Amino acid sequence: MRLKRKSGRGAFWDDDGGFSTLGMAVALLVTLSLVFSAAQVYRVSSASADIQDVADACVLAAEGEVAEFMIAVRVCDAVVLSLSLTSAAMFGLGVVALCAPPAAELGIELVNLGTKVLQARNTFAERAASGLNALQEALPFLAAASAYATASSNSGGAMAASYLGIAMLVPAEGERIEVAASKALSDAADAVSEDAESLKQASEEAEEAAKEAFSAREEGFKRDCGDAPAYCMYERAEALSSISSTSNPLFHTVDAWSFSVALDRTKAYYSARFEDEAPQSSAIEEQAESALRKVFYRFALAEVSRGFVLDTGDSFDAFFPLLPKNTAEMKATRLYTDSVFPLGKDSSGATTLHAWGGCPNASPSMGTASIAQMEAGNYPVCDVCRFTASSLGKVAAASSSISNGFEYHYSAVARAAADYTAARAKQDEAAREVKGKAGGLLEKCKEALSEIGGMRIDAKPPGYKGAVSMVVNLVAAPADTGFASSFVEGSSSLGARAAVSGATLLEEESEEGRTVVSSLLDGLAEDGGAAVGAARFALDVWSLALRAYCDGQEAIDNAIRRSLDSLPLASASGLGVWAAGRLANIVEAAGFAPAKLDALKPVLVSTGYVAASDSGTFSSRYQVIRNGVLSTSGSSASLFDSLVGKVEDEALRALEGADGAIEVVCIEFPFGGGSIPITITLPDSVRRATGELVSAAADALRGVVASVTGTRVWH
C-alpha cells in the first residue's frame, strides 16, 4: 500500500482509497503506550505485592509449628490424666475386690498394679515435662526454619523472585511446664497398700460368719416352709389348724423369707389351735386331754407372743421362746406354778386337783391351785380325770419329738434363729470392721480423684500469642522482565522488596484432637494385646480412662461400671456389692469435664496485635519501631535491622537437639508388653534446615534491607 498526501486536506490516502490523519496515528501510538504502561504497572505492582502473600504463608507455617506442639501437649495431658485415673481406679477396684473373698487375690494384684501405674504415671509425667520443655526450646528454630523453607519454595515465577524469610514467635520464650506428682494419689496408694492384707483378713472373717448365718437361716427357712409339701411348720399348720392362707404364707426362696415369717406363723397357729380345740368325744379322758391341750395352746400363744425379730440390715436380734417338750421342762414354766386348775374332793373327801372344771369331782368348786401346790401338798390323784403333772407334761411331748408335730419343727426354727443371731453378731462385727477400713480407703480414692481432676498440663509455649514473619525478595529484576516492549522503557529496575506479617492461633471445632487420642487407643490395643489376667483388666481400664479424657464423666462412670461388673463380687457377706456401690457413687460425684479438643489453627492478624499481646524484648522493640515507621512513613530498614538479630539469636539457641523426628516422650506400659512413642515428625524442608541456613537467611535479610530506601509504608 502506498500513501499519498492530498494537498490541503491534512490527510493521507492509500492506493485502495483508505485514509488516516496524523492525529489518529498519534492517538493510536499513545493508546498503545498507555496500555503497555498500565500492564507494566500492574505487573510491577503484582510482583511487589506477591511478597506480602509470601510473608503471610511464612508466618502461618511458623505458627503451625506451635499448633503441632499443642497437639503433643494434649496427648501428654491425656496420658497423664488417664494414668492418674487408672491408678486411682485400680486402688478403688482393689478395695472393692478385697471386700469379696472370691475376688480377694485379684484385689491384691489390682492394688499392686495401681502402685505400678502410679509409678509409671510419675515417670511419664517427669519425662513428658522434660520432653515438652525441650521441644519448647526448639520451637523458635522450627518456626524460623519453616518460614525460611516456605519463602524459598515460593521463589521463581515470572519475575524470577528469590525470597528469604524468617519468623519470630511471640512470646519468644514459653513458660516452663511442670507436671507435679499427686499427693492425694500417693497417700491413697500408701493407705491401700498398707491395709490390703488386714482388709482381706477381715473380709474373710465376715464371709465365714456370713456363711454360718446363711446356713442357720436356710435351716430355719426349710423347717418353716421351705420343705413343703413335706412336713414343716407351714404344712403342719395347714393340716392341723384352721389358720388362714394369709397367716400361713408359703415362700419359695430363702432370700424372700425371714425369721419373722416363722414367728408370725407360730402366733397365728396357736391362736387358731386354741380357737379350734374341742373334745372329740364325751369320754372323760378325752375331755380332760382337750382341756389340757387348750391350757397348753393358751400358754404357747402367750409365750411366742413374747418373741421378736429385729433386723435392721446392719444388725440382727431375735427371740423364739422354747416350749416344754416333757414334764421336766413343763415344771420349769408357769404351767407348773400358775393356780389355774380347779380344786375338789373325791369320794373319800380328800382334796384333789382336776384337769378342768368339768370333772365330776371338781364340783362343788373349792377354788384353784397349781400343779406345784398339788405336789407340795401330796394331793391324791382324782380317780375320775386322773390329773397329774405328767398329764400336762405329755401334751406337747409327742408333737415335739416326731416330725409330724408342729412343735418339732418350731423347736428347729427356734434353734436356727438362735444360731443365726450368734452368727450375725460375729458377721456384723466383722462387717463393721470391713466397712470402716474399706470406707476410709475409698475416701482416700475420692480425695485422689478430686485432686487429679484439676492436675492438667497448661502449656504456654513460644508463639502461643502469635508470630511475626519478615520476608525479602533479593532479586532487583528489570521492570520489563518477561514483558519487554518498545512502548515502555525497560532500563529501570524493580529493587529488593520486604514485607512483614502476623498470625495467631484460633480454636476451631474439629475431630482432630479426638482422633489423636483414638490413635493412642489403637496403640494400646496393638502393643498391649499380650497382657492377661489382672494386667489385661488394668489395660482395659486405662483405655476406658483415655476415652474419659475426651468424653468426661459419662465415660469414667461407664469404665467403673464395666470394671465392677467384671469382678466376682458375689459372696455370702455382700460386702463386695456394698463396696462396689460405694465406689460407683464416689466416681459419679467426681464431675470430670471433658478436655477441650478443638483444633488450634493459625490465622492471619495484624502484626501490631501480635506485638501488643506480649511485653517481651522483641515485641516491645517491634512496637516502638513500627509506630515510628508508621508515623513518619519512612524506611523499614530500621525495623529489620533491629529485629532480625533477635530472631536469629532465639532460633539458634533452640537449635540443639532438633534433628529429624522429635520424640517428646515414650509411653511405657506399666503392665509389660511394649510402648508407644509420642513424636513430632519434622517436614522434609525443616529437617534439612541447619543453623547455618538460619544464619545465612538472617545475614541476607540484614544485607538486603540495608540497601533498601524509600517511603513505602508497611503494615
Automatic annotation (TrEMBL):
Coiled-coil features, chain-numbered ranges: 189-219
Transmembrane segments: 21-42
Entry keyword set: Coiled coil, Membrane, Transmembrane, Transmembrane helix
Domain of life: Bacteria
Name under which the protein is recorded: Molybdenum cofactor biosynthesis enzyme
Annotated organism of origin: Ellagibacter isourolithinifaciens
